[in-house]
Amino acid sequence: MDILFSPQLLFSALVLGALYALIALGLNLVYGTMRLLNIAHGDLVMIGAYAAFWLFTLTGISPLIGLPVIAVLTAGVGVALYSVLFRGQLEGTQSVAQLEANSLLLFFGISVVLQNVMALAFTASPRAYRHLDDVYHVAGVAMTGNRVATLLIAVLVLAGVVIFLKSTIYGLAVTALIQSRDAAKVVGINVSQVQVGSFALGFGVAGIAGALISMAEQISPFMGFPFTIAAFVVIILGGLGNIAGGIIAGVLLGFIEIYAVALTSATYRSILLYGIFVGVLLIRPQGLFGKTRGG
């Protein structure tokens, strides 16, 4: 039982939980404001990882310095997809169920295209680079510089987004749209503008997460799917569209995964993720922190 009180495991759980919360944040923003099920979300993480890899490989610029550029790149992908594919879907008179179904199919196609384009451009071989990989020992915990940076930046971005949503006019408009689209229209919120902004913010955050992941793990064109699944587990736990609940659920999932794998085996990781996903849907479909929202 000593393993449960290991500071090393605690650090690992905090890093993984912060990453899960960061990845799920972007997915939650897109679903919360538009009811779009983005199953290509992990592929945006992959694009951010490749952008960081090539930025460092070709120029030697640290991914940490290049984070704003990477965020703008993936946000631009989001704006382009919104303008070309999803604006018309959202402006139609279809029901939420139809919108979710159509978005699921569209994002599936986008996922396949992104994966194969990246594989054709850069081959399917895994790639990696070394950056901030020196090991430091603090209070008996061995930690690499890149994982410390990942934890700090993830926390800062999460806190920044929460503050933005709670204390700015645009952020309050996003929150209002998450709570009720109809009510947001009634009070004069420019729904289309908020939607494209949510796309950009959600995709930009995914790119940042990918850049952070690339510093410590191998990357490949097909790396995104596990992160998509993890993000969906997080937002199901936290409640679809519940930003604060999603952040808490991301940290919780990181702790569950790290400690469960430590007590059992890494081979049970996928079973654990899918098990939590199915279990929450069966026992509490609205999530641990979910509430019933307006249409």
Helix fraction by DSSP (H/I, runs of at least 4)? over 70%
Number of domains: 1
What's the overall geometry?
globular
Mean pLDDT: 90
The SSE string, one letter per element, is: HHHHEEHHHHHHH
Largest sheet features: 2 strands, antiparallel
The N- and C-terminal alpha carbons lie at a distance of 47 Å
Strand order in the sheet with the most strands:
1-2
Strand content of the residues, in percent? under 5%
**Would you count the extended β strands for me?**
2
Gyration radius, in Å: 19 Å
Oligomer: single chain
**Coarse structural class:** mainly alpha
SSE diagram, text form:
Blueprint: H1 7-34, H2 41-59, H3 67-91, H4 96-122, E1 135-138, E2 141-144, H5 145-167, H6 169-179, H7 181-186, H8 191-214, H9 224-238, H10 243-263, H11 269-283
Antiparallel strand pairs: 1-2
Helix pairs in contact: 1-5, 1-6, 1-8, 1-9, 1-10, 2-3, 2-8, 2-9, 3-4, 3-8, 5-6, 5-8, 6-8, 9-10, 9-11
